[in-house]
Amino acid sequence: MDTTITQALTATDRCDRCNAQAYVRVVLPAGTDLLFCAHHWSAYEEALRPQAAEVVDETHRLTEPAPADA
User: Fold this and answer.
1) What is the pTM of this model?
2) Strands of 54-57's sheet, edge to edge?
3) Do residues 22 and 14 lie in contact, with contact meaning Cβ atoms separated by under 8 Å?
């Protein structure tokens, strides 16, 4: 049984290619992960998705409206 819990991405997670904020985490079968901004994920998704054990894609956060102040 796999007990891995993938953490949500935060503003401190940076793209491995360009150091922009990461919105995608690709977990490889060996357990290592790669972080990508939306731009670089778009560029590498086709090649990486078949090799990934898990993909955490939070790019929807780029288009969601900011929460209103209470």
Assistant:
1) 0.82
2) 33-36, 24-27, 54-57
3) yes
Amino acid at 7: Q
Residues 36/44, Cβ–Cβ less than 8 Å = yes
Q: Which residue has the tokens 């985490």?
A: 25
Q: How far is CA 47 from the centre of its chain?
A: 15
What is the C-alpha separation between 34 and 3, in angstroms, rounded?
19
- pLDDT tens-digit readout, 12-67: 999 999 999 999 999 999 999 999 999 999 999 999 999 999 999 999 999 987 77
Nearest Cα to Cα of residue 36 among 4, 59, 60: 59
- Give residue limits of the domains in the chain: 24-62
